[in-house]
User: Fold this.
Amino acid sequence: MSGQYEIGMVGLGVMGRNLVLNMADHGFSVAGFDKERSQVEAMRTEAEERPVLTVESPEELVQSLRLPRAVMLLVPAGHIVDAVIGELTPLLDHGDMIIDCGNSFFRDTSRRERELGEMEIHFMGVGISGGEEGARYGPSIMPGGRAEAYERVRPVFEAAAAQVGGAPCVAYLGPGAAGHYVKMVHNGIEYAIMQLIAEAYDLMRRGIGLNEAEMSGVFGGWSRGAAASFLLEITTDILAKVDDFTGNPLVNMIRDEARQLGTGMWTSQDAMNLGVPSPAMDIAVAMRNLSALGGERRTAADSLEGGPPAFSPDRDEFLARLEDALYAAMITAYAQGMAQLRTASEKYGFGLDLEAVARIWRGGCIIRAAFLENIREAYRRQPGLPNLLLDAETGAEVLKRADSLGEVAAAAARLHLPAPAFMASLAYFDGYRSRRLPANLVQAQRDYFGAHKYERTDAEGVFHTQWT
Ligand code: 6PG
Assistant:
């Protein structure tokens, strides 16, 4: 049996509901289902006069859809996605399509596409970024899967996505898990930039003693400068927010233990698998893990307390350095992510167009920033660019701020304030532009203790030395 609704949605949590409302506002009819009755009720109330049908079961959902059916999932990543797919597939017909819009692990997406392909059901893995607000008024959408499957849902995505300069922040990215992979790396970059901003906040607070209102003012100024970005804007708002209960800045009332759902860790893990250096993302994950050791940290704070630092930076000079350092480090975070996408695209056969990736990240998503226009331009000029830092204009932007990055890293070290994302960004830049790294010594050590051989600078082939 079939009906008239164009899109099905399983998962009517706030993201799912908002995406349904967004699609309905653009004239698409949507049928929604959730196992939780309260979510179905909330959808019914919010839908008002829109072309939205709420249903009580997967059977009803499937029956309400136009053929061939397209069912979106916005449910938590992991086994729930498999469970929902397991419920839907017996009800679907050949040629129908399931579109997973959650933050699924890309290898799960590849497996699901294969398994559903055997049943002649199309499967798309689609990354959606922008949080609740984005889902409602225009996210960045990162679709992967079969190109012909995408063509069927393209009008819906193009209408629902954020628009920048009249262009929707969505593009078909490639086969299989291409979309979920790009979303994963988006989140890796997101982790790195969030950590950098958190370090800048700590350096201002503990390093030069600014209060929250002052810091909000500083971040507000920066968010109108070269580093203009969504994450700087929200940081400006967060630091200005006063707690209703205590009258303190709300940020001070929040426990300093960061949680994570896994996408940042997956990005780092896969960068390691691919042999792609991504130190800013690695350290961002590590620092969330370190922050979560709250009890241990408090014990160590007592037992390992040092004296006050014998260094106090000049406030205005330090703030100017910090702004430059943050912008340079943000660029290197994008460089690391884009380099990972390039290698992953080759290794996994995604055929990614990195200009398109930068283009669809310009609006709607969490890492949107004015600088993404420059990144898009860099890949338009040179689609095969091995690393963003090799783009002359981008490289120059970082180079002219490299001293500030060094000054901030050095100040953090002298103040004994942890700023590993700044330090890792500096090391990435300095490492990447080193004609000669000390890896020759590492090779010699490997050969010394393990006879692993080494290559010479003056001859082809591999060599082993009897070192003693
Ligand atoms: C986005 C966000 C979104 C979500 C993260 C949070 O692009 O809209 O990245 O996907 O907020 O998954 O991730 P963590 O819980 O791991 O910080």
User: Anything to note?
Assistant: Residues 438-468 form a domain with the Single alpha-helices involved in coiled-coils or other helix-helix interfaces fold (CATH 1.20.5.320). The two ends are 80 Å apart (CA to CA). The pocket of 6-phosphogluconic acid is lined by residues 103, 129-131, 187, 190, 260-261, 263-264, 365-366 (CB under 6 Å). The mean pLDDT is 97.
